[in-house]
Amino acid sequence: MIVTIAGAGRLAEGIAARVLAAGHKLRLTDREPGKARALAASLSAMAGPDAGGTRLEVTVTGMAEAIAGADMVVLALPYPYGRLVARDQGAALSGMVVVDTCNPVDFSTFDSLLTSPGMSAAEEIAEANPAARVVKAFNTTFQEALMAGSVGGLPLDVFLAGDDNDAKDKVAGLVRDCGMRPVDTGPLRRARELEAFQLLHMTLQGPLGLDWCSAIKLLPLAQLALPARLAW
Q: Distances in Å between the alpha carbon of 146 and those of 16, 44, 65, 129, 170?
């Protein structure tokens, strides 16, 4: 599979590391070519000499070239740049599986989302390019957890939302290839709750001293180490 990641920040690094570990081909593109090159060099060093030359492809000459022929495009971009890319690359993204990872957080207050009520960033991307097959994923995962691929010795949960079941299945397959667990939350409108959920997760980093190294994980009761009988 050829996976294109638009963006070269921390989240892009975490997703890219998992994609390479799964043996997929990776393309990186960024508005600042130097950032993509620096991330590619870092990833190549982590992947080792056998993987770097054959499994890593870096695109630094524009978004359109990175999209052409890809199997999936991951928009690891801050809000609202994913929506702008979806609009500007309309024809190139037609029929493409497009993964939106962003959280539209108002960082001036760190207390609200920038989307209008009843709307998510993922839905805005779908509206900007109705021909793209948009899936919300990876927005609830931090870079540190992605680099590890696990939390508490268990596979990391990656929550998905999308209206195109085939596109969602493809993203779920990539998540499994990367050693993580996909959790299908339903249609694309569920991205509203996922984005709000991650806002809460982010605001708890300071009060709980988590230092951006936490993860959201769903566990059935049977997996919890509970006493056989509780004394009330």
A: 9, 17, 27, 28, 19
